[in-house]
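Render this sequence as a predicted structure.
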Amino acid sequence: MNHGRPTYKKSEQVDGADVMVYYWDARDGQAVNGWWFGTSVGGDQVWAFHTKSSSQTPPTAGWKVPYEGPVDPKMTLSSNRKRPAEQQLQQQRPSQPKNEVGAEAHIVVSGCAHGTVGPIVCGSYIRIGENHGKPTYKKTEQSNGSDVLIYYWNDPKSLSFCGWWIGPQVGGEQVWAFQPSRVIATCPTSGWKVPYDGPVDPAFLVSVDRKKSAEEHKQKRQEESKKHQEEQQAAQQIWAVLKKVKSAVASNLQELEKELEEITQKELEKCGPQKTKLKEESDKAVKQAKERIEQQKEAQAKAEPLLKELETVVKAAEAEAAALQKAVTDAAVDKANSKIGDCGAFINENGSVMRAGIVPSEASDDKLTLAKLLLRINECTKLVKKTQAQKKLDGALDKFAKYDSNKDGALDRKEIASYAKGEFSVSLPAETLEMIFQMLVEQDGKGVKKDAFHRLKVQVGIAREKVTDLERKKQREARDKELQELKTQLQAKVEEVGKGVSEVEAAVQVVETLSAELAKDSKTSTSTETLKKLDEVGEKSKAAKELMTSKKGRLAGLKEGLAEDVLGWLKGQTKPVHLKLVKLDKALAHHGGKNARIRGAIEKKAAAELATAARLSVSMLKYHQKVKSLSTEDLFEAMSTAKGKDRVLDKSGFISFFEKCEKEEKKEETEKKPLPSAEELESVFAKWATSSHFMHFERLVALLRCFMKVVKGTVITDGVSIKDSKPLRKLEVGEVIELLGQPVAEGDVDIMRVKGRAMKDDAEGFVTISGNQGTVFLQDGGNIFKVVKETILTESFELEADSKEATQKLQDTTRKLRPGELVEVQAWPKKEEKSALTRMQCKALSDGSVGWATVVGNQGTVFLEVK
């Protein structure tokens, strides 16, 4: 780096010299401010120059070659991306030490070989100032009555004079040595020319005077330490007075303020960098002390009347406590406690104000304070408690006198027994009385004296507790016996439920076995067989679940009415059984989920098989009708078992007809399809049947109707021949045609024609199915519509919603048809006069829902279109 910008060096030397790219700032003038190519940083020999001083890195183009010449357009700089390893290695090399003395103030010049200059310049130097931004050094002794200086000179007009000089004065005419470096910030250690216009003297060295530098540093540290100590001492004296001022009271504030002023005048100037802070703290402390004292005066003014009022309340409490000494009654005790309570209530209400007026340093014996009043209140409280205790003691002694029947001042064994029975309702056995005598009566004494009466009470209490413990023990033993009997009964019931778990395990095992067989056979069995097995497994699962629920219920029933201690024990006993049931429940749930997935897949498969069987059945009916040249009515007559106007088709007749009907023979083996089985025909009949047992003629008509949709515009004519017939109207793409006959070829032109009815307006005629050039006009289909815009499925043809509210209610309560759904036509579209909507009856193929849906809105919006 140089002058804050990167410096670059050519990897190989040229003619033994380095090639450097470096930045030079404006310290030597704007004319030399920019990027340079030269042998050294700041050297006199340069080859190229760029004036763009704002660039942080060397510019890529615009270099003047030579430096005072024109810009060379061919010279460019670019990044060398091929040598990252060398660059990294170069970055890792340690930097060479600088050829300068650094920031040290004491230096030594030695080794000058010149006979005249050597004695003049050699010796010790000390740093005395700066010139042109770099330090100046002066020899500690004069030479021949003249000073010897080392200084830096910067001459922008003449770069050859820029560098370090040794002479008697800065910038003088007389000089003895010269060092041309302009980069080094402090005195160079070598490279000096002696004399200034002579060669470099390799023996001439400038070095740091370590001894004098160390002495100077030591002296400087000592001076700084001494100065710091003096500053700290002065500051501590001021802080000591400041501390007093901060805790001053009204009586000594003026005196302390004067003391602070005197110490500040004396010591503040010695505080060095703490001077400003101490001055601020002094002013602040005096100000805060005055404010605090003023606040204390205000608080005292508020506290004094309250203290006097509290004193009145305390005097009333003291009077009641004194009166209590004369006559100790419950009423007198309550009255004294009430007065003491008044004192506490007053302090709770006004304590903060009274405490705010406390100034500890101003307290005196004759001054009324809160502390003194609190002490008096405590004395009253102690006196009342002492009086109560004395009354209680007197009461106990009255009992002593009551049971001392012989008035001898001692309670004998008989009197102690009477005392225990009368006061505590406990009968003391002889051994207990003997023990009490041994503990409380002196040898040869008559009995327990008054001073040991309270100890007698304790011993009687102990004896009573022993009796109570004995009762508790009996109750506990009875309870333990009762619990043991209850646990025995519960254990038997738990074991009974545990035995019943084996029944659940067996039932679950059956479900697991059937589920495994079902999973295996479902891949090869028919949908009907698989569904039957699924139903069987479902029944077994249901039975196992009910059995398991029963066992769980019995376990739960055992807990009813039990105490907490028994419940904890019962939980541990039932845990193994409960865990078994939980495990079995999870197994049932696992197989239930697995079987549900199988059922979903099988039901989809069954639906597809049923659809295939239904299509095949329709094809067989149409083929038989075609071969026998039967009308739909004749076909139904042939299938029906009941004749006449009540004719219907039952399941047996339906199945038997397919067994004997004409069947189409396929030429190719690949074209042959298996005929529907009896089971499949039963399912087809159930799908087509009008009721649960019969199928009517109208249903057969609907099944045998054939539809084709127009896929390319054509016309419907009144005859088979295109040439000899008249066109009735044009058929649009998307219209649906119901076929009324079998397709026929027209003459020799190989055009297929068919008689049909347009579902749009019931126009009947002949329509071309396909042309002789392969053009297709009609395709199979037309009775399946696709929902393209959401609409609703209603029960009736008419829409009776006349208001917005009714329309919203209708939309919220009816089946919605979503875009993409498929519906099958049940009644062809027609216009509803009241609403001008074109509507049709249809059945949703997704769930079998039947209803009326809008095909085209009254504004032309299309909701359903032919698929």
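Summary. Confidence is low (pLDDT under 50) at residues 89-97. The longest helix spans residues 453-521.
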